[in-house]
Amino acid sequence: MSKGLPKRSEDYSLWYNELVKRADLAENSAVRGCMVIKPYGYAIWEKMQAVLDQMFKDTGHSNAYFPLFIPKSYLSKEAKHVEGFAKECAVVTHYRLKNDENGKGVVVDPDAKLEEELIVRPTSETVIWSTYKNWIQSYRDLPLLVNQWANVVRWEMRTRLFLRTAEFLWQEGHTAHASKQEAIDETVQMMNVYADFAENYMAMPVLKGVKTESERFAGAEDTYCIEALMQDGKALQAGTSHFLGQNFAKAFDVKFANKEGGAMEYVWGTSWGVSTRLMGALIMAHSDDNGLVLPPKLAPFHVVIVPIFKSDEQLEEISVVAKGIMADLKKIGVSVKYDDRTTYKPGWKFAEYELKGTPVRIAIGPKDLENGTVEVARRDLLEKSIMTLDANFAQGISELLDNIQDTIHQKALKYRESHSFKADTFEEFKSIINSEEGGFVYAHWDGTAETEEKIKEETKATIRCIPLDQEAEEGSCVYSGKPSKGRVVFAKAY
Amino acid sequence: MSKGLPKRSEDYSLWYNELVKRADLAENSAVRGCMVIKPYGYAIWEKMQAVLDQMFKDTGHSNAYFPLFIPKSYLSKEAKHVEGFAKECAVVTHYRLKNDENGKGVVVDPDAKLEEELIVRPTSETVIWSTYKNWIQSYRDLPLLVNQWANVVRWEMRTRLFLRTAEFLWQEGHTAHASKQEAIDETVQMMNVYADFAENYMAMPVLKGVKTESERFAGAEDTYCIEALMQDGKALQAGTSHFLGQNFAKAFDVKFANKEGGAMEYVWGTSWGVSTRLMGALIMAHSDDNGLVLPPKLAPFHVVIVPIFKSDEQLEEISVVAKGIMADLKKIGVSVKYDDRTTYKPGWKFAEYELKGTPVRIAIGPKDLENGTVEVARRDLLEKSIMTLDANFAQGISELLDNIQDTIHQKALKYRESHSFKADTFEEFKSIINSEEGGFVYAHWDGTAETEEKIKEETKATIRCIPLDQEAEEGSCVYSGKPSKGRVVFAKAY
């Protein structure tokens, strides 16, 4: 490493960008707004995928794959949907290049123009519902519970690694149901799956709630979401689950013969997704000025062992001990990397694994060999201790990892608690929203899009959600003074 | 099922298309040449992915992700590469739609034209090597062993589900090395990984060999391949591994400081890939006129249990037994589906699982309850037997699955043996190549592209590979009569 990271307190944004690059998570590519996810970053994403995929399967979903391209006319079939996505989509117009007449490279062949332009999918509702039309005839074909892991493209003008990129990776679930209630239950279930994943794997506390109409997915009747709070006091939408009503069924004429008497009814739909944006959330939720802090459950490897030696003989002796530890740890499901490279010094390695967020570092030197001990450092608290290599050692490391997972979660929870406020006047509201610290502001709102928009214009704060656990409380709108029956959650957001 | 499949002997091509659709593997989408991979088909692809991914990791590779889009100028940097791909690529020219002035849907916004067109990746050498330039400075950064799971697009004019589609899913490995020999070793290693996968998981015998110059990957110095023989006597290229020499390093100026004295040298490269085309190979290698035949190692589930009952009481009793069997099988790693749906009759279910290639079917009826037995049917040989539900039952099923895996492989091997021929005259050659039976023809070739091309023109046969186990044998070219030192393998191919 050349030098330390920028400090969060000095330039949070720069800290984030530098951390993503220096920890080898991702980098910008030659194509505007598109990122390269580097092997270390991708290893974290793979861990996320594996956990989520199992959760989807445990709730009865199967994976499938639908085309990358959407005919322009399909995108247009649901009016609000096309309005939401038309302004930022990549359009394929030709299917061939040809040699330039000057012999200088290639140009688009004007004779190879598509009859109908194709849109690179920004999301797949339209192409999937056009397919479901053929898959669904009767109530026997329902529910249809499908998920897709895919890349999507939204032509964002201001991009940031993981948080907002022109191309990103995600999963999108698309389900079809015979009744409204069943579809709503599915929507809520998947929001809960996401919340479970965020809390118990990412160690990231989230609020569960419903979006206001103006923040809804284009084409949905209701959008459920999970919202997290980053260390700069800004909110980040970490996952959404949409109740689509019969909107896409009507747009693509998807009907089923019902169980009762075979009458034809429109199908009820949902869609839900999380993306590589979660990588950004994970990084910002826990990391510090020394680098990444990863919850053990999503770390590419749990433990790194670094030998400290002055001679080949010492290294050999240490390696024997290290390999014994590795074998013991692997047996109980703890993944270990042994970094015995001679091209780098221990100090360099310490800094490197600190930057990359390896939860536990074990250092073994000649003194340790004499004493039958090792030095164990936990990344989250940057604390070191000496542990004896006895029969309980591996179990001790495993418990330490559990403790780290829990400690990270508790710390984030405390941060959120200390950054959640109630505001009863607009002055109060503004002073919190505009403060350095930021945070979630619980305030009364009159329920109108006009007020929501004005608050956004004046403060940049948006309604993150109407929380599911909203308490009934008579009050008056923090902006208009009109009556309200409960507080909603405001924040500036990514 | 409405009616039986077409017979292979009558219309192989129709048999394949119908099988893919009726077994719920894939279907054509609304976008020309792009397929929808249905949940049952995708479940097989997921099994393939999981095995291959582990094989790649076991050989030291990490996954990463690179952009979908390639700037046109990048594609042009390697002369042969662009020549190979320019004629069939999807080109993004605009990044926005706008409302039509007539208010009828959306049109491409002419004000949102890209300065430089973007190509939807047909393969990622160019975008990856442009990235490697920043990742590689010194011999310490090598080897770089990266793989990507992704979708790619090649604008094929004549498409067929799985075998040739405009968009397909694949993995592409891209490695960088300090020496020529190391890169060649990597190329050969990955061909061997593919062959191992084909033989031991797909139960599909493959020839290993090297492509002739005219069949090489655009931009490679050598292409290694595995070639399989389908049941209609046509060959199918199932995987390729390319030694790229320094071609892409030179095109993108990727150099490293060598270990010896720090002199700057060009990096040596490889790339290798297999795709959803393997699904087509798997289907065609083993299936019969009754439907799919799947090797147990890649089947979405190994065993289906079908209860045969006339009353709810009988079903309840059978379910107790079925659940006991499921628990025992799961313990030893055998996956089971229990189909107790009352909406379908046993006969319908038998035909359905036969069509879908479930390796083992267990039927349990009232008689079985009395006798403590079940009826076990193996899909590959369509043979039934009665098995006693004793302490060895689960183990017996596990052994049956091993036997099925082996039997399928042996059958395919025998088919290939009986369809491998030597031809010493062009008359002989033509009579084999043009026969109904088809097959691999081992023949002498003079080593020239001219002869290769003429044979292709006259017979549609291509040189599938120069086999790695080629025997030294003096002979004369089957077409030109010129001298040759060993036989190469010809066939008509997919």
UniProtKB/TrEMBL annotation, chains A, B:
Enzyme Commission number, as recorded: 6.1.1.15
What reaction gets catalysed by this protein?
tRNA(Pro) + L-proline + ATP = L-prolyl-tRNA(Pro) + AMP + diphosphate
Q: Indicate the enzyme's highest-level EC class.
A: ligase
Q: Which Gene3D superfamilies match?
A: Anticodon-binding domain, Bira Bifunctional Protein, Domain 2, C-terminal domain of ProRS
SUPFAM superfamilies, per this entry?
Answer: C-terminal domain of ProRS (SSF64586), Class II aaRS ABD-related (SSF52954), Class II aaRS and biotin synthetases (SSF55681)
Which compartments is it annotated to reside in? Cytoplasm
Name the Gene Ontology molecular function terms of this record: proline-tRNA ligase activity
Give one Pfam hit by family name.
tRNA-synt_2b
Q: Which UniProt keywords apply?
A: Aminoacyl-tRNA synthetase, ATP-binding, Cytoplasm, Ligase, Nucleotide-binding, Protein biosynthesis
Q: Where is the Aminoacyl-transfer RNA synthetases class-II family profile domain?
A: 27-295
Q: Which InterPro entries match?
A: aa-tRNA-synt_IIb, aa-tRNA-synth_II, aa-tRNA-synth_II/BPL/LPL, Anticodon-bd, Anticodon-bd_dom_sf, Pro-tRNA-ligase_IIa_arc-type, Pro-tRNA_ligase_II_C, Pro-tRNA_synth_II
Chief subcellular location:
cytoplasm
CDD domains, per database record? ProRS_core_arch_euk (cd00778)
Highest taxon of the lineage: Bacteria
Its biological purpose is as follows: Catalyzes the attachment of proline to tRNA(Pro) in a two-step reaction: proline is first activated by ATP to form Pro-AMP and then transferred to the acceptor end of tRNA(Pro).
| Domain-level remarks | Consists of three domains: the N-terminal catalytic domain, the anticodon-binding domain and the C-terminal extension.
Q: Which family does it belong to?
A: Belongs to the class-II aminoacyl-tRNA synthetase family. ProS type 3 subfamily.
Self-association state and partner proteins as the record states: Homodimer.
Protein name from the UniProt record? Proline--tRNA ligase
